[in-house]
Please model this.
Amino acid sequence: MAPCERASRPLIQCIQKTYTRGLPGLQLQSTRTFQSTALAREDAQSETQSQPFYKNPDPALVTSPRLERKLLKQGVAPIGSRRRRAALQSSANIPFEQLPYQCFQEARKVLLADREEKIKKIAAMREKIARLQAIPTEEAGGEQVQKSKLRAMELELEHLKIHADINDPIVKKKFEDGQGDMTKPIYRFLADRKWREYRRKILVQRITQMKVIPDVLPHCDPVVDTKLYFGRHTIQPGEFVNSRVSSTAPKLDVQLFEAGEKLVTIAVVDSDVPNVEKDGFDYKMHYLAVNVPISATSTKVDLANLSTDSQVVLPWLPPVAQKGSPYHRLSIFIMEQKDSAPLNFSLVKGMETSRDVLLRTLQARYHLKAIGAHLFRTQWDENMLEVMREIGFPDAEIELRRKRVEPLPYKRRNPSTFR
Model:
């Protein structure tokens, strides 16, 4: 290396460091004097932006499965599909409604014109409802006739609200991104339709294939989406749950697709309790709670945190299965109370003291209607004996054996015929 290069290299490095460190700072200092925002906010934003992407991933841009799992552990779900998030990383941040496509903008004009017509119909329907409510009951043809007309008009109003927004691409985008407002009819309609496309079919298949219907209840038409959680684990309908995991009360996510609030009764029934004396099976109520409020926006129900003074009739009893017995079906039913009126808790708690009560009896006694269901199963495992001892199960040490059924005479093996 030439002596001139040796002498000039430290000078060049010093100039480069001065340029990279000093000049941007001078530019930032000169431009801040013309801004009206607070310096602390800018510092906070610069610190957030200066963090590496893997430490602070953006849910709208993350594409790595590892970072997606990191966001899910934090309780933040990635927005949209992975392909869409990958495309957004290299595209300009243009608002969805301002996309520079002529066909798209012309189509939006047509949709906006159609929406204006629907809004006019909504306003006219509201005026009709107001006029009907203002007239006396005698002129409307009686109280029952007036109520039926109002109910029909309110349903038509809900349908108009749905049709006014169902073709809006912004609404569809928000719903697909999980940002829908469940207080609006359109998002409740879209969520109900998505649930009925797949998850409801799976649920109905499981509760009918495993004979929960009609073993526990004669009929159940699910209209609410019920999800079951033990800890952080989501339980699919019919899934086997470890006895140690099910020793604590689960959490429910009951999604209602209607406006308003409902009071429901939640029951957990084991329909496979062995009865050796009669060589059959009995029922056992593992949990019973009344007057539980649910709505389209308030969906979380923690069975362990419900009030013992006004809701919990029978507390959670861990499900058990004796060694040698077949698996047990634990059915969870969400039952709507009549007219969403609260039940007399003290009366119910005084009458329902036994866990052997049938759910059919409760349904007929308190006029309940099954609107949701779920199912999980339990069987003998390595933790079952310990759980039995903790709850004081009387027959924990007994092992059941299936009774051998003698074959019919013509099916018996006759050694003489083999000679």
Observations:
- The beta strands are 225-230, 233-235, 239-240, 251-255, 261-275, 280-295, 300-302, 312-314, 328-336, 369-378.
